[in-house]
Specification:
196 residues
């Protein structure tokens, strides 16, 4: 699937499973899911995929930053976890996340970056820094993996195993992609209307 589908479905999945009741509870969901929904595609190969993914990753980084700033202004809790936690764990989480992302960016497309190993490693690293953002990150990341499993191209879900997994139901950039993106957007809108 393409970036729009991953964004809308990933955000909707995180909001549905976490089910925040207030804006303060929603902020870690926004921060975590906005990164998790697209981090898998840090390894995009084709020019079209790179351009679209890069544009959406920038948008989602801005969304995550806005959620972190709002969390700080409202003293909602994500930033408080930094001051209460160990600076060594925070540094280990940040360094680990950077290392995993670096390795993922140079792996083959739908290789390490789309694996359960990457999901576990990135989630653990994020949990060391912002524990409240780790579950929505993991949910959005997993939704990305699930959507990509439905495509015609295999995903190395069990990396380092060489064989990939592929259901082969849809092409990544055709009607199924648009349906997923639209359905995710509608579901996310309904969740936001309920929340606010």
């Amino acid at each position: 699937m393409m970036a729009k589908a991953h964004v809308t479905v990933g955000m909707a999945a995180a909001f549905t499973i976490i089910a925040p009741h207030t804006v303060q509870e929603a902020l870690p969901v926004v921060a975590g899911a906005s990164i998790g929904c697209l981090i898998c595609d840090i390894d995009s190969e084709s020019k079209t995929e790179k351009t679209e993914s890069s544009r959406w990753r920038i948008i989602m980084l801005i969304v995550a930053a806005a959620a972190l700033i709002e969390d700080h202004l409202l003293d909602a809790g994500m930033w408080r976890s930094l001051s209460e936690g160990s600076p060594y764990l925070w540094f280990a989480g940040m360094a680990g996340f950077a290392l995993v992302c670096t390795f993922a960016s140079v792996s083959s497309h739908r290789g390490f970056s789309h694996s359960l190993l990457a999901l576990a490693a990135m989630t653990l690293c994020l949990w060391l820094v912002f524990p409240a953002a780790a579950p929505p990150f993991a949910i959005a990341f997993a939704s990305h993996q699930i959507l990509d499993l439905t495509n015609k191209r295999s995903v190395r879900l069990f990396y380092p195993a060489k064989k990939g997994v592929c259901l082969g139901w849809f092409y990544a950039d055709r009607i199924a992609d648009r349906i997923c993106a639209a359905a995710g957007a509608v579901w996310l809108l309904l969740i936001c209307l309920r929340l606010f």
